[in-house]
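I have a small job for you when you get a moment. Can you supply me with one protein entry, sequence and fold together? It will help me judge whether the discrete encoding reads sensibly. Write everything out right here, beneath this request:
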Amino acid sequence: MQLHQSFGCWIIKLCHRAKIISFHLCTLFYSRSLQGARETLKTKSPILVIEVDDNNLKKQLVSAKQLLTFLISFGYKLYNLETNEALDMESSFENCHFDVLCMNK
């Protein structure tokens, strides 16, 4: 938990300066970090690149679908970086693993 608190503080400080944030290296903590960065997401709308791994997210008691829905609530449009297509939110995202580009509309 201490690592999460330190990491969360670091990512919030980064959000205030950055235009683009990548969460590839912090798979186990990015869901909580995004929750802590609500104000920044609302006011700064940084471009996000996130590795979405449903199985790792489930270890944090959140699903890929919940994480993606959370981002959409801030006005983000989500794109699969492998296919360059907008995500179909009708999908279940069960056991998914892909990189997503999040850009504010």
